[in-house]
Amino acid sequence: MEPARPRAALVAALLRRGDGATAPLNARGRFDIWGHRFGILIMRLPFEQFPALSAIETCRHVFAQRIPGIDVSHDKAKVLERLNAAHQEIRNTAGLGHWPLFTAQQIHGNKIAVINSCSRSPMGREFPARDGIITNQRGVALGIYVADCCAVYIVDPKTPAIGLVHSGRKGTELGVVTNGITQMIDRFGSDPAEMIVQLSPCIRPPHYEVDFASEIIRQCRALGVQHIYDSGTCTACDLGRYYSYRSEKGKTGRMLAVLALR
Hints:
Blueprint: H1 7-17, E1 21-22, E2 33-34, E3 36-37, E4 40-41, E5 47-48, H2 51-54, E6 59-64, H3 76-93, E7 101-104, E8 112-115, E9 125-127, E10 132-135, E11 141-146, E12 150-156, E13 161-167, H4 169-173, H5 176-188, E14 196-199, H6 212-222, E15 227-230, E16 255-261
């Protein structure tokens, strides 16, 4: 008999073996994976993609939603460990599974990490004391975890170059998105008029007293960004699809935003 394994690890193993049946994207842009083995129902792996980014041939992206069946009533490190197998399968589905994943520590600051030919690694890494990452390197994936804060996707399709930024109330006040865009201009020669900026689902009024999504948009426009898209979705309004740090009083999971250059 096969020894018992943690649920997330078992699900990942079964999916790799092909025991789950896959279905196409449904009307809401979710990808459902179902199946049975040893009497266990394989979880649905939901994610969404944004039309404005999907239309850009030079990049790939995904936004992982709430993963059903995972206990997230633990500290952040434990929660991310439990979500890792499902997030990996979502990255696989988006064609990003074998690309090294670079993440940021996310301290609600405004510092940005830069991946260049010298700093890229085949294994990926977490950049300490950073809340955003920019790069002009192909074949590496940028990752940001959010649960009410906004994941801001920045794409310069001409250079090309990309950025992914974690911006909540404090980070927005500190200008973390502004800093990311400015560094793309300075380091890669990006033109803000050519950039496409996409805001992920995040918490919004009346569930939160500050509309930092609107402030992010204002800051982008002040820099000359013309193509700005907002999902308009409030994470606290739909706990069936998203995690919300405020609504769930800190005992919650994290959505994963991923962006990469083809």
